[in-house]
Specification:
about 170 residues; 7 helices; Arc Repressor Mutant, subunit A; two-stranded antiparallel ribbon; mainly alpha; globular
């Protein structure tokens, strides 16, 4: 058994507090707040990120959208279809390759965009309370590193057989 600088004993098999627990709880609570704020516009908490990314990268394909957001293609297709059915997004066949659709906001999409961005800015303000700019930047940097680590492991796991994963 070893001790910490404060003299407390540390057991090697003691559970390590998981950042994932907090990331998950923060995500769920933010999703509830986002859904509530966007309800008048019929945009679910799962669609706003697609709307914003399409606005920021007009002409992006669904595949590009999935890659940009690190979200599977099925989820992307459902979110885009929902935004399209609400009249916020339109698909336009690519001039270079007719097999691909490029995504654009409609006039209604542009009208709702400021409301979506305002809601998100407000929630960032709420979540940053009590943090300095430096602390917030460090937090974001560390979360990006964690995401990179986890994504690398997912891709590593995808390349291994089922038997290798179980061992």
């Amino acid at each position: 058994m070893s001790t910490t600088e404060s003299g407390r004993s540390v057991c090697s098999d003691a559970p390590v507090e998981s950042a994932g627990k907090y990331v998950s709880a923060i995500y769920r609570h933010l999703q509830m707040l986002i859904a509530d704020g966007l309800k008048p516009y019929r945009i679910g908490s799962g669609q706003y990120i697609f709307l914003i990314t399409i606005a920021d990268q007009e002409g992006i394909t669904q595949k590009g959208l999935s890659e940009e957001l690190v979200i599977d293609k099925t989820t992307t297709a459902k979110a885009v279809s929902k935004l399209e059915s609400e009249g916020y997004v339109k698909r336009v066949a690519s001039a270079e390759d007719q097999r691909f659709n490029q995504l654009y906001l409609t006039e209604a999409g542009y009208e709702v965009l400021p409301h979506v961005r305002a809601r998100l800015r407000g929630l960032v303000g709420v979540s940053r309370q009590g943090m300095t700019d430096e602390e917030y930047e460090l937090l974001v940097s560390l979360l990006k590193r964690m995401l990179s680590n986890v994504c690398a492991e997912v891709h590593n796991e995808e390349g291994r057989s089922e038997h290798e994963r179980q061992v």
